[in-house]
């Protein structure tokens, strides 16, 4: 089977190309390029993500889960911009063309496309060490994108869901020693939180016109808070006891919980700042099913401060996961 | 140096982000996503390409040349759609962060960005086996994109420049035995044709409203002609003696010339079909400096036919380079 047959069989599927009703895709897979037509008054939102075996996921990861995670992680950046998904391209580098692997990968990718309501519009398949590149496209009304640079002193610091589950999920996926008595249901929950994160697209849309800055927690709470602080030229203060935790995470020792909530990353929940005048929205968002927590506030200054019960203390360095830093630092 | 410092030092440069004057980039590198605003009445054109070491370029290729080629090859797909470049994202996977390599790569990438008038708007840097993913964005007036599916019987088949130089260039780059007496100037020309292909953006823009179908020759003339034939539901006939050849290529034996022109690939010149009523344009394009040749015609039927002096004969299989096919086929 040659490259073109491969692409046709596993990626030119209705399931991937028609995952969502969309008038925006004027030309999909099969030509030199795809054509997108954002609606009038909308800006196009673009983000690219790469997943590498052994870096972003364990070696020999299950292909269906890889397919899901690769797309969901990229779409999370659209949620973080308060954008509506339109389409994505896939740049897939594979050591060999193995039908079973491709079928499972395509199925997981299709699940994510369905859940995120986004269509495959183009791609490139090449031979080499496994590397999954996804570029996502969305639209947002002009001037309403949620950037990192709008946080102002006095704003509240909020998070859209539980922290630490991504790191705990990785421990489960890697088969590390788990706390005695961790129920199977909680193990399954964490397994899913790692492999099938759900981008907070609905929350992102609700934040339009209200939140002053935002992003999705991928590097870890402290590292991502530092991104907002730097881009906005402010200090972000985090109240440790207010950090939201899942029931599953409570089974671990307190020190491990805290470390994962602060530095674990891979949570893909939205972290955002909210002017106090808009705090009435929080109750409405909760009624709409969003688990929004206030975890701190914005002050004049710079960097990130953390209160673990002994008052606010500066956090030295972002402390998040960084690919080009030795893990022994 | 951590990942963020690396990106900042070598990719957040004025040279890459301001390679072209463009009002279309509303938000560039540094947030969760970039924001593009195509002009009114324009469609967004999107294409993604991956370059893998040992597959698309020799192992330990010079980083400046890799940077140039990675972007130029991707932009060629915009030319093939008759689009105007707007921006690109870079997904770069590297075994390690080596300052000299990154500096040279960024410089070559910047040269291509300048030559193609396109700005870097986002990216992702990860650790792993070398893999260069480029996604390019352009705009084209609605309904004027040049697709593969519009060729009709009676149309002329044209090419925008010399064929076979990409493959001859690869032979030079690989240090293969060259024809005796090949002048150094010709060697340099071919070296450049491989590492620094020039996307035919100006020709693509000229073809708008005239050409009926088109693409850029990357897989090889026969393979790419087959793409148009299949997408348009027609037969493409190629007159071998009309294929345009550079002076450099003439130094090789005739059989080698022909093989490279037909099957070599990597030429990145436009192959397009033109209704006979529009043939008067060809002279105008030549006067504008475009080296356009008529190399055949479109007939009712399917597939590709080739005349090497003994009449039109069907070509069995595309015969181009395909990554997932054994080279021994």
From TrEMBL, chains A, B:
EC number(s) reported in the record: 2.7.4.16
Domain annotation PurM-like C-terminal: ranges: 152-307
The protein's enzyme class: transferase
Pathway named in the protein's UniProt entry: Cofactor biosynthesis; thiamine diphosphate biosynthesis; thiamine diphosphate from thiamine phosphate: step 1/1
Residues given in the record as Mg(2+) 5 binding sites: 219
Family per record: Belongs to the thiamine-monophosphate kinase family.
Name used for this protein in its record: Thiamine-monophosphate kinase
Lineage of origin: Bacteria, Pseudomonadati, Pseudomonadota, Gammaproteobacteria, Pseudomonadales
């Amino acid at each position: 089977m040659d490259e073109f047959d491969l692409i046709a069989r596993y990626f030119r599927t209705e399931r991937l190309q028609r995952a969502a009703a969309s008038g925006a895709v004027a030309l999909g897979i099969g030509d030199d390029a795809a054509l997108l037509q954002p609606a009038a008054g909308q800006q196009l939102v673009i983000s690219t993500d790469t997943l590498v075996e052994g870096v972003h996921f364990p070696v020999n990861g299950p292909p269906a889960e890889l397919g899901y995670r690769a797309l969901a992680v990229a779409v999370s950046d659209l949620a973080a911009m308060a954008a509506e998904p339109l389409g994505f391209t896939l740049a897939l580098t594979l050591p060999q063309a193995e039908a079973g692997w491709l079928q499972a990968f395509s199925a997981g990718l299709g699940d994510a496309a369905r859940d995120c309501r986004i269509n495959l519009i183009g791609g490139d398949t090449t031979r080499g060490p496994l590397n999954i590149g996804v570029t996502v496209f969305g639209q947002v009304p002009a001037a309403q994108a949620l950037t990192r640079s709008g946080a102002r002193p006095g704003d509240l610091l909020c998070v859209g869901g539980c922290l630490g589950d991504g790191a705990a999920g990785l421990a489960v996926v890697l088969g590390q020693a788990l706390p005695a008595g961790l129920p199977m249901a909680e193990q399954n929950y964490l397994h899913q939180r790692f492999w099938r994160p759900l981008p907070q697209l609905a929350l992102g849309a609700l934040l339009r016109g209200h939140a002053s800055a935002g992003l999705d927690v991928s590097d870890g709470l402290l590292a991502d808070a530092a991104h907002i602080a730097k881009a906005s030229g402010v200090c972000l203060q985090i109240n440790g006891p207010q950090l939201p935790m899942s029931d599953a995470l409570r089974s671990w020792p307190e020190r491990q919980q805290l470390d994962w909530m602060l530095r674990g990353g891979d949570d893909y929940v939205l972290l955002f700042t909210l002017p106090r005048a808009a705090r009435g929205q929080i109750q409405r968002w909760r009624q709409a099913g969003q688990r929004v927590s206030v975890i701190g506030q914005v002050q004049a200054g710079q960097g990130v401060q953390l209160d673990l019960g002994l008052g606010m203390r500066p956090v030295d360095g972002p402390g998040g996961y960084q690919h080009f830093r030795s893990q022994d630092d």
